[in-house]
Amino acid sequence: MNSLRKTTLIALSTLAISCGGGGEGNDSEDTPSIVRGFTLDQVLSLDPGPTYQAGVTGSDSEGNTYGGSYRVVNGAMESVDQILVTPSRRNIILNPTIFISDPEPETIDQGETRFIDRDGDLILFSITEDGIIETSCEPDSRYRMPNIVSIGDSEQYPDLQCDDDSIIIRRWNVVDAGNGNAQLITISERSTTGESSTESRNLISQTVVQFTIDIRGNILAFRTTRRTPSPEFTLTYGS
């Protein structure tokens, strides 16, 4: 199995985007600031059905190129540990178009499912490969993304403890994307937990996801970069 298929982490693509600006006039210190907010109603929607899909192209550090698709689909409500949740499934399929590595890369079919309760809290998170659940993770505590945030905001998600003895540490920040748009950058790092609290963790993979959104919260573009340190391998894809 090649290096890419050993990396099964799809970064959490929960979106939180906003844009901020200050107002000045007549040299008055009492002039209120003007804040432009980017609604997240679309990206945080739990309505059943597809919420986002896009064609993607990509390349890796071995010189291979890919084409494929990315989809986000919400399923009907179900029960997890007696809690009603909506499964929000994200799936990336990448087919090699030009390959240089030997052996040639395989088609990538990986995904994740976030189980979200009625309050918008993450209850359970699972990672799949070829449609089969590889590992499931639970957050250390409840966390709800805000509907509107400002450029410059940043937070760390609660850690995800996984049943394969790995841990996922995640953080996000919002930056100005220019042209009146904003961009969310989410960094996810999956590591071994170590056999004791004093044992250092070994990085399994790092995923950086960048989403660009307009003032109405529409997704304009996205880009994902995934890296594994051992063996060293990088895959980048986006719309």
Largest sheet: 12 strands, antiparallel, barrel
Number of structural units classed as domains = 1
Average pLDDT across residues? 82
Q: Note the overall shape.
A: globular
What are the low-pLDDT stretches, counting only 5+ consecutive residues below 50? 3-28
Residue share in β-strands: over 45%
User: Helix/strand-derived class?
Assistant: mainly beta
Count every beta strand, where a strand is a DSSP E run of 2 or more residues.
16
Strand order of the largest sheet: 3-4-6-7-8-9-11-12-13-14-15-16
Cα-to-Cα separation, first versus last residue: 27 Å
Tally of DSSP helical segments: 1
Radius of gyration: 19 Å
Oligomer category: single chain
> Element order, helices and strands?
HEEEEEEEEEEEEEEEE
Keyword list:
2% helix, disordered N terminus, 239 residues, mainly beta
